[in-house]
Amino acid sequence: MFRALIGAVVALSLGVPAKTDSRGRFPQAAPALAPGPALERFTVTADGHPLAVWGRRPAQPTGAVLFVHGRTWSARPDFDLQVPGLQRSVLVSFAALGFAAYAVDLRGYGATQRDQTGWLTPKRSADDIVAVLAWMAQQHPSLPKPTLVGWSRGAAMAGMAAQSAPTRLSNLVLFGFAFDPDLKFVSIDLDEKPLRLKNSAAAAESDFISPAITPPTVIKAFVEQALKTDPVLVDVRKDDEFNGFVPAQMETPTLILFGSDDPGLVAEDAGKMFAKLAAKDKQLIVLPGADHAAHLEDTHDAWVAAIVNFIRRPAAKK
């Protein structure tokens, strides 16, 4: 049953079906969007530590979304990537659709300094995400509770945040992440001091797998912007804390979203995790041809539409 579910590939785009050319490739150039709201920087304090939060907000938003980055790179290259001639900024796309769109730099990433420990743990990140969600509620008291979107490792931490503070959000999107819920995370902490290794261009290029959906201009822009914002790799530890994310206890409406060609994701694990979710209101969408960075590549519009359609779905009967 799980394999049949995963095999049902869904393609979405903004208002029209996501079409590929005769070689199965997505079109490289989407219609350009107007510049829209300017990028703003905010500071949110979590347990005494300042977090940088980036946002693009229309004059009269109808909803709010918080994006959480993955292991290596921070909010701006991941969710506000500027590519000459192409629209690949997630914040711009969501603001154009009426959402107050925010992305957080977790501790040690982008414009947020490390704390005094020098390390970052899953629980610390999850608590910081909850603090940002609480801040967003203060910014937009008349809007529905925010939707929380996490990418890769950020999805696991978003899941932990949603489970620990379910009243802070209305929807959860787990993008580019799935695990077998019957297995356990383990922590291998061999170093007493943070290594503070330099990031590399090769690391920045590693998430872009398929040339069919990855224009060279996107890779070039990402490498330049990622290395500028995150020259040093953040040191993480205590991955066993991810065991605090238990899908069987997750009742928040949840979308599991990933590319069919994501090399770091096992489809059977995604189906198993989906089945284990306690939420009655849940969806699983696979983007055909997409890999781990679907939101930055030629699948950008389809990725945005999948999330927006989930947010705007008709209310379910209770």
Protein described:
By secondary structure, the chain is an alpha/beta fold. The protein has one domain: 3-Layer(aba) Sandwich (Rossmann fold). It is 28% helix and 17% strand. It has helices spanning 2-7, 75-79, 90-96, 122-139, 153-164, 201-205, 216-229, 267-276, 300-311, and strands spanning 40-46, 49-56, 63-68, 82-83, 86-87, 99-105, 147-151, 171-175, 254-259, 282-287. α4 packs across α5 (153-164). It is globular, with a radius of gyration of 18 Å. Residues 1-31 have low confidence and may be disordered.
Number of separate structural domains = 1
Q: Give the C-alpha Rg.
A: 18 Å
Report how far apart the termini are: 26 Å
Provide the low-confidence segments as ranges.
1-31
Give the structure's gist in a few sentences:
With 318 residues, the protein is α/β, with parallel strands linked by helices. Helices cover 28% and strands 17% of the residues.
List keywords for this structure.
318 residues, alpha/beta, 8-stranded mixed β-sheet
Write the layout of secondary structure elements.
Blueprint: H1 2-7, E1 40-46, E2 49-56, E3 63-68, H2 75-79, E4 82-83, E5 86-87, H3 90-96, E6 99-105, H4 122-139, E7 147-151, H5 153-164, E8 171-175, H6 201-205, H7 216-229, E9 254-259, H8 267-276, E10 282-287, H9 300-311
Parallel strand pairs: 3-6, 3-7, 7-8, 8-9, 9-10
Antiparallel strand pairs: 1-2, 2-6, 4-5
Helix pairs in contact: 4-5
